[in-house]
Amino acid sequence: MPPASAAWCARRTSIASAASTSEILAELALYDAADARAVVDRIRQTASSDALHESLLAIYEAVIEEGASSDWLVESRAAAAFLHDLAIRDRHRGDRLWKFAKASQLVLQLPVVGRVAARVVDWLARR
């Protein structure tokens, strides 16, 4: 049986409707520490991370065994190539972001367009 507070939450139909003081006090009177303890114990039993960690470790070990190469040099070169490509993509992304920021600043400094663009940006930020 779910705790009384769960039933109260189910009865609430809208966040916009405020609960009265008497409703809150009535629900507090229904609070049962034993129910709360039962919920906590149930969550701890079903949400244990030990089984998850064991299954993930087994998957990792299987993947490592499956893809293990006896040629360390080939593995090292593949890892280096991947990291090199990753660094290049990150550098280009940073360059594009910097160029976009500079262009945005230039547009905002234009006499007419800049004022309108600044108001639009302010309006969008408030939404």
Structure explained in plain terms:
This protein has helices spanning 4-11, 21-29, 33-46, 49-67, 72-109, 111-126. With 127 residues, it is mainly alpha-helical. The protein has a domain at 71-127. Helix 5 crosses helix 6.
Nearest-integer average pLDDT: 80
Q: Pairing-aware structural class of the strands and helices?
A: mainly alpha
Q: What ranges have pLDDT less than 50 throughout 5 or more consecutive residues?
A: none
Order of helices and strands: HHHHHH
Give the fraction of residues assigned to helices.
over 70%
Residue fraction in strands: under 5%
Number of helices: 6
Structural key phrases:
mainly alpha; 127 residues; 6 helices
Report a brief summary of the structure:
This protein is mainly alpha-helical and 127 residues long. The protein is built from six helices and no strands.
Tell me the layout of helices and strands.
Elements: H1 4-11, H2 21-29, H3 33-46, H4 49-67, H5 72-109, H6 111-126
